[in-house]
Structures are given as structure tokens and as C-alpha cells.
Amino acid sequence: MKKTFLTVALAALASLPAPAVRPLSAADSPLAPAGPAVRLGYFIGGRTSLFGRAFADGSFEREGVRVELTTRWLRGPLAILPLSLEKVAALEKDGRFGKMKGSEIIDLVSAGELDGGLVGEASFIKAAIAGKPVVAVALLGHDVKDAPGHGIVLRKGIVIKSPADFRGLKLISRRAGPADALFLREFLRQEGVPERDVKITDQVDDDRIEPMLKKREADGGYLHLMLISHLLESGEVYVYRPMNWVNPETSLALLVFRRDFLEAHRGLAVKVAEGYMKRIAYERAIPHDRREKTRRAGKTGLMELDSGGMSLPVYDYPPKVRTVLLDEMQELMKVHGLLKGTTDLSGFVDAGVVDEALRALPGTGK
């Protein structure tokens, strides 16, 4: 039987020591590659964390490409991500670092201020519908059906026995792209709760959510696992329903590039994909008991988190963009009036970048 790269890589890597992120060393990356950096917009979250670990690990530099990740302070300026998990973790402590929305990344990419970025599914779909010059080349993290990374939480003490019990509740969705508000409304629709019966506040800044719950300015809402786990530990909420009212796999992130950049610098995009894919293979080889389960290296360093019937997003190998999931999400966005029409999303996807990276990797018979 012909061995695939992943089979060979897993066997080889399983015997290596497995820290959460291997630190850069002179042997790994003696000098940053020459030439301009590939400028990518970035947000910190479960669907992007493995890419962030690849960045901190020097995975892209070892492929001969310099990557620069741009993010934003919440309610503040843009910032360049440090090449160190420890430094990023220190910046994360007050919950305001790494808060860049996918729609903002799309705008900066379209304007030529960034070459590409990591964005959520709904931001990408809206960009495609608008005809913006973005192309998705790789799938990043996505939720899974048995243990999604998002859900509906309610304050302790709130009892729901019928749709009528939601009447008068104050529900929130966090500051994000269009998907969070959409998933909250689809939840209400499937629960049989008219939107007029509840008060919805969307785009709530992350650092306001816990205070709002404590002050009873919010009764619950659609949140992500990293925040939910903290709220569960503090006893503020309970999980009413993990994300199972839609296909959780439609909650995903994508690596995108501006179309003209991809045409002019395709080799660099392929190198970025190679570094990312090698990191996926490396992490798959780490034994369960040695995977990072604490936040000592911040959200980006966290590899596993299981709480309330939920878990962190997973990363496919090879990370091919799954247009069937995007089409499913596009239809849901149309149902809720976020889109006036639909488009053939395959025209905004380039599966060849991952294919070329796969052929270039050892053991794949390039």
C-alpha cells in the first residue's frame, strides 16, 4: 500500500518530544526569509489557533516565507502579532487583544492594505456576493457535530420548559462577523420563539459579556466555548443547548488571499499552505495526554478544551475548502435576509493551492 505523507509524518513525529509549540531555534530558523512579508489579517480564536501556533513555531519561515499577522485591539488600533506565544498571552490578559472581525479583514484585503487573512464563513460569503477580490485557498478550524465549539447559554436560575418561557429574555451575540447573530436567530426560529418576544443585542464586546450577565443586563445568548468554559467555572451560566440546531460544521474559518496577490505570488501562498499543513500533521502526532489543555500560553496555545458537551474546533488534513458547507451557510443567510441573492462560491475558491502544497510535501510523490 502506498504511504501518504500524513501516514509517514505521523509515524515519524510520534517519536518526537511534543511540547505545545516547539520554540524557534537557530537550527530551525536562523534568519527571517528575505523579501516583503505576506501580510495577513488575523483574529484570535479556536478556529485560527493552530495557524497561530504554526506562526509562533516558525513553520512559515522554515518554508522560506515571512508572514506578518495583523490584528486589532478591541476598541483600539491595529497591532502586529508578536512571534511569541508568551508575548501574545500577556497581551490577551485583559481580553482586548486579537479582536479583528472578518468583515474588517475583508475590507483591508480588498483595499490592498493586506494580502490576505483568516476570516469566518459568513464574512467570506458576503464578500463573494459583493464581488470582492478574495479567494479562499484553505480550510481552517471548524466545529464538529458531536462536540461543537459554540452554544446557547442562560443565566443560572432561568428555567425553560416551553417556548413561552423565553418571553422577555435579553439575549446577546458577541462582536463578530454576521454568523453569530444569524445562528442566534436560527436557534430562536427552531425553538419556536418569535424574535419579537425577546430583546436581542448583537455585536457585544467580549469584555462586556460577563458584566452584563452578572448585572442581569443579559440573560444569555449565543457564545463560543472559550468564553462559555470560563462562565461555567464562575457559575454564571449553564449550557441550554450546544450548537445542534444547524450543522455545526458550517461554523468555520478560511484562509483567503486577494485575487491579484494570489495570481502574482502563488508560490508564496503555496508555501504558507505547506507550513500550515505540516503543523496540522505535527499536532496530530501529539499524544492526547501531552496536548496543551491549559491557558498558560493563552488562547492560541490551547489545544484541547472540553466543557458543557462542547470542544474546540478541529483541523482537517488536507485542509481543503469544503464548498458544500459554504453553500449550506449561504442558503441559511438567505433565509434570514442577510443576502439578497446567492452566487456560485466555487468561483471564489482555489483548491489548487492545497493540492500544490500537498504534492510538494515529502512522501506524496511530487
How is this fold's topology laid out?
Blueprint: H1 5-13, E1 38-41, H2 49-57, H3 59-62, E2 67-72, E3 78-80, H4 85-92, H5 102-110, E4 116-120, H6 121-129, E5 134-142, E6 150-155, E7 170-174, H7 178-191, E8 199-204, H8 206-214, E9 220-224, H9 225-234, E10 237-242, E11 252-258, H10 259-264, H11 266-284, H12 298-301, E12 306-307, E13 310-311, H13 323-335, H14 352-360
Parallel strand pairs: 1-2, 1-4, 7-8, 7-9
Antiparallel strand pairs: 2-3, 4-11, 5-11, 6-9, 6-10, 12-13
Helix pairs in contact: 2-11, 11-14
Shape: globular
Radius of gyration: 20 Å
Q: What is the helix tally? A: 14
- Biggest β-sheet description: 6 strands, mixed
End-to-end distance: 17 Å
Architecture of the largest domain, CATH level 2? Answer: 3-Layer(aba) Sandwich
Low-confidence stretches: 1-31
Percent in helix = 25-40%
What is the CATH topology descriptor of the largest domain?
A: D-Maltodextrin-Binding Protein, domain 2
Structural domains: how many? 2
What's the overall average pLDDT, rounded?
91
DSSP E strands, number: 13
**According to CATH, what is the class of the largest domain?**
Alpha Beta
Q: Specify the CATH homologous superfamily of the largest domain.
A: Periplasmic binding protein-like II
**Spatial arrangement of strands, main beta sheet:** 3-2-1-4-11-5
Topology pattern, helix = H, strand = E: HEHHEEHHEHEEEHEHEHEEHHHEEHH
User: What fraction of the residues are assigned to beta strands by DSSP?
Assistant: 15-25%
Describe the structure.
The chain is of the alpha/beta class and about 375 residues long. It has two domains: about 5-145 and about 250-360, D-Maltodextrin-Binding Protein, domain 2, CATH 3.40.190.10; about 150-240, Periplasmic binding protein-like II (D-Maltodextrin-Binding Protein, domain 2). It is about 35% helix and about 20% strand. The protein is built from 14 helices and 13 strands. A six-stranded mixed beta sheet has the order 3-2-1-4-11-5, sandwiched between helices. It has a five-stranded mixed beta sheet with strand order 8-7-9-6-10, with helices on both faces. The model is unreliable at about 1-30 (pLDDT under 50).
